Amino acid sequence: MDYCIGGHNVTIEMDGDDSFLDTLLPSFVPFKTTHEKGAPRLFTLRLERRLKMLPAEGKRLITEADTGNGVTKVERTADGRYQLLIHTLRGLPCALLITSPQFGDCRCAIRGDLSVKRFALNSIMMLTYAFSAAFHDTLLIHASVVRHSGRAYAFTAESGTGKSTQVANWLKTIEGCDLVNDDNPIIRLVGGQPMLYGSPWSGKTACYRNIRVPLGAVLKITRDTVNRVEPLKPVDAFAMLLTACSTIRSDEEIYRRMCDTVSSLLSKVTMARLHCLPDAASAQVCRRFLE
Description:
Blueprint: E1 2-5, E2 8-13, H1 21-24, E3 32-33, E4 43-47, E5 60-66, E6 71-76, E7 82-87, E8 93-99, E9 105-110, H2 114-133, E10 138-140, E11 144-148, E12 151-156, H3 163-173, E13 178-181, E14 186-190, E15 193-197, E16 212-223, E17 228-231, H4 234-243, H5 252-266, E18 270-276, H6 280-290
Helix pairs in contact: 3-6, 4-5
């Protein structure tokens, strides 16, 4: 099955009828396409029922991260390949992913009932996309995004701080707004221009839009007693955007590529901190600043 996500071609291969992928990945349906023969792909993922873990010899543990949905164990081999083992919240292994050094060629196995398999394959696709896209001036970030007057405005914050609330206030009080994505949009430099894309990953909000919008600003939300916008200095803007990216910090090449992309964005996109209350007035203050 072929998909176009953030302007990049992605393919999932499996034995038998691949229409079952629509059941496993319903949020990917708006991104389905047909790649021309020989067209470049960001990555190809092969689903294999009998995929075995790589031998223990020569592997080293990179990280064992709690994503909030379960623990993901990341290991790397001497020849640069990755092995990821994804667990459910109950601590049960549900997915095994083995990749090439730059995540272009991937094999995976998933297990469990339908809901667990959906979680497993969706997690694999999200991680593989984030890491492979880093080599192509592309960032998968944690943010909620609203579109207004033909530009996308991305709000990032710690979980529970109010990025979705801020976007909801825009949608309620500012005419002509629509939601682009509520959790994991994609930012790309296309011909040197910053663009924001919807994605198949949108948290608890079912907003899976295959659209592209010029990126106008990225704002970090901070709870405060007054509503005001503070433009960020370049060093603070760099830290703010990099922190919002999905990455493997221990992979020097991926991390360097992401840092380069973030640095390129600083001179092209407004970066600011939104000090705000969770009220409708904060959206108006923010809009006036951006306009």
